[in-house]
Structure formats: structure tokens, C-alpha cells
Amino acid sequence: MDIMLDHIAIAAARLEDGVAWVEEQLGVRMSGGGEHAAMGTHNRLLSLGPSEYLEVIAVNPEAPRPKHARWFGLDRFEGSPRAVAWVMRATDLDALRLPEGVGAPMALSRGELSWRLTVPTSGEGPFDGLYPSLIEWAGVHPAPRLPDLGLRLTALEISHPEITALAASLPGRDRRLHFAHGTPGLRLRLNTPEGERLL
């Protein structure tokens, strides 16, 4: 089964603040995105190549609060915009054996996009939310539809006090994943037309 990196989520207290921060850090304009009615969130997107993208996501203040926890720990998010989650793509979610707490796949859609994503009942997955969510797309993928501005992910740095267990439990690997023992967190290294940038 093919399992690969799909996208990375940058959370923000307000969507416009997250978009402004990413655009300032990377020197580009974000595009695309929309609303997620089932989660009460909204987002904007940025291409990281033909099959990957960066997402800025926040609680939508104009949407009703869902009865379940929002994904990526957004119900408890505060502070400055930062990377909070990453998502791996699978061709068959039901065939995967996932750790406890990852959550059952939830069917979701937005416009022409349809997908299934593992959503933990608490809103935050194992290892302080640093275990990846797993996604299975139904047909259309957003990345090829985004303007390619020449940004590419070169490294996703994951730190956690239990980093050995986290790394060992992953369903797939990517040479760009870098693991370190330390305070829970994510950091992105990106190649841009203006040189390397960190988020």
C-alpha cells in the first residue's frame, strides 16, 4: 500500500493572522481553501509541489460549534500561528493497523473534494497530537489545482519526549522526516525561490 506525506497544518487563532504570517515568512501569496462545515473550521492552502500542500487552518467564528471535538486540537489552540499537525495519505485506510487514539476515519467533503480522515474523539491524536492523521482521498486532490510557486518541503522536524516510540509506530516513512528527543513540536524546512525558510 502506498503511504506518503500529504499535507501539513499550520493552526492560527484567526485564519487571517495565520495567512499573513505564512505569507510574510515565505514571501508568497496563499490561495484556495474554504470552509469545513462538519468541523466549524476554515482554511487557506499553499502548494508544496504536485502532490503536497501547506494548510493554514482556524476555527471559523461564523460557523456553528460542532458537537464533537474539532481536529488538530483547534478547540484548545492559542498563541501565535505554528505548525501543529501533519497528514499522511493512504490508498486504503481500512487496511491500516493504527495505534489507539488515532481515531476512526470520518467521511468529509468540501466542494468537489471528498476524503476520509482519521479524527480522534478528543480532537488531538497520540503523542500530543504529533502522530500524523491519515487521509484517503476520493478522486480529486487539491495540490495539483494550486499555483506552483516553487516551494518544496525539504524536512519535517518532529520532536517529542517519546520520539523513538512515535517513529516506530508510523505506518510509512519519508526521508524528509527528522526525529529528535525534546519538547513536543514541529518545524518545517522549505526551499523557496528566495532560499531556505523555516516555519
Can you offer a commentary on this structure?
With 199 residues, this protein is mainly beta. The chain is built from two helices and twelve strands, in the order βαββββββββαβββ. The strands form two sheets. An eight-stranded mixed β-sheet has the order 2-3-4-1-5-8-7-6. It has a four-stranded mixed β-sheet with strand order 10-9-11-12. Strand 11 and strand 12 form a beta hairpin. The mean pLDDT is 95.
Features:
single chain, 199 residues, mainly beta, eight-stranded mixed sheet, four-stranded mixed sheet, 12 strands, 9% helix
Q: What is shown here, in short?
A:
The strands form two sheets. This protein has an eight-stranded mixed sheet. It is mostly beta strands.
Mean pLDDT: 95
Major sheet size, sense and barrel closure: 8 strands, mixed
Please tally the helical runs, counting DSSP H or I stretches of 4 or more residues: 2
Give the overall form: globular
Could you tell me the radius of gyration in angstroms? Answer: 16 Å
Order of helices and strands: EHEEEEEEEEHEEE
Number of strands: 12
Q: What order do the strands of the largest sheet run in, or round the barrel if closed?
A: 2-3-4-1-5-8-7-6
Could you name the ranges where pLDDT drops below 50 across 5 or more consecutive residues?
Answer: none
Helical residue percent band: under 10%
